[in-house]
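Supplementary Methods. Inverse-folding protocol.

Structures were first reduced to a discrete structure-token string of length 326. This string, shown here, constituted the complete conditioning input.
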């Protein structure tokens, strides 16, 4: 046969044809916008390593969330940055803590139209910058669970719609589930950072959240980037312990993990397009090396294609506006 019978280009000929047969559809509803909130009044401080992202006061966060909602965003992930920190991260569970006040104000302003996800960890609240109780240079697992449970219940009391533990302590999903249930919050879902790798791509986030460890690193509790089977074990444990949503973090370098997790579980799968991934795109775009819009939408579509139902990304607002204009 001298001429191909199958011509794959037939269905690529026009934009409507390509839309008709597209296998993956990135939607605004898939996107979650992370926000950093501090204890200061009327503050809006640019994060130098994350162009377009700010650490800001609650009043300014309300304005930004309103603008995000105008673009179609309906979910935010909150990171609180308290004015005072201590060894145990006590501001993480303080009723008048910055995260709790931010949750209450956002829910007061936007009600059920906005999903408020509360990051549940101690790194932003501890003076040493680690995600748990530190003793003799070691992060202690079980004592950390008690503090995390206080934080989770406090966030639920403030009105958080979803609790998202990112600490990577063993057994924390079961511990938080029991604590939330005992406090009467059995209807609050847990989005577990199940496969959270000890990645070098978190550096800009640590600038924004002021959470760089004062000593050592987080490799004793976050996952080794060389391991894939271990990620599936972590996911299996979190499912058994009662997680409602499973997360893989980071996203771009770990799409193989996202894909394997998607095939393994029937729960919603989230992926975190982390700060370093965001900053690299912004830097390349600022230098005129790439078309920011096209690259962002391609990267987010790739994350969706790999199996993520939910994508946490600092590109969320821009991506939403671009998607709505398509």
């Amino acid at each position: 046969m001298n001429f191909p019978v199958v011509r794959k280009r037939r269905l690529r000929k026009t934009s409507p044809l390509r839309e008709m047969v597209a296998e993956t559809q990135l939607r605004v509803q898939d996107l979650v916008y992370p926000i950093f909130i501090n204890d200061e009044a009327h503050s809006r401080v640019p994060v130098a390593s994350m162009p377009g992202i700010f650490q800001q006061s609650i009043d300014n966060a309300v304005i930004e969330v309103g603008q995000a909602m105008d673009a179609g965003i309906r979910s935010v992930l909150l990171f609180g940055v308290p004015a005072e920190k201590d060894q145990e991260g006590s501001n993480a569970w303080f009723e008048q803590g910055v995260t709790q006040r931010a949750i209450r104000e956002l829910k007061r302003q936007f009600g059920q139209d906005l999903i408020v996800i509360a990051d549940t960890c101690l790194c932003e609240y501890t003076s040493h910058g680690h995600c748990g109780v530190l003793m003799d240079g070691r992060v202690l697992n079980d004592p950390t669970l008690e503090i995390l449970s206080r934080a989770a219940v406090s966030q639920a009391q403030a009105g958080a719609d979803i609790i998202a533990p990112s600490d990577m302590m063993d057994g924390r999903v079961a511990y938080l589930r029991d604590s939330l249930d005992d406090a009467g919050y059995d209807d609050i879902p847990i989005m577990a950072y199940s496969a959270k790798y000890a990645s070098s791509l978190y550096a800009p986030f640590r600038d924004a959240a002021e959470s760089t460890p004062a000593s050592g690193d987080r490799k004793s509790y976050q996952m080794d980037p060389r391991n894939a089977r271990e990620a599936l074990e972590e996911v299996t444990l979190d499912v058994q312990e009662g997680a409602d949503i499973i997360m893989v973090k980071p996203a771009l370098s770990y799409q193989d993990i996202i894909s394997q997790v998607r095939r393994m579980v029937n729960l919603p799968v989230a992926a975190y397009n982390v700060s370093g991934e965001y900053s690299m795109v912004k830097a390349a775009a600022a230098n005129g090396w790439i078309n920011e819009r096209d690259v962002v939408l391609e990267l987010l579509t790739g994350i969706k294609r790999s199996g993520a139902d939910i994508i946490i990304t600092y590109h969320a607002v821009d991506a939403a506006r671009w998607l709505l204009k398509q």
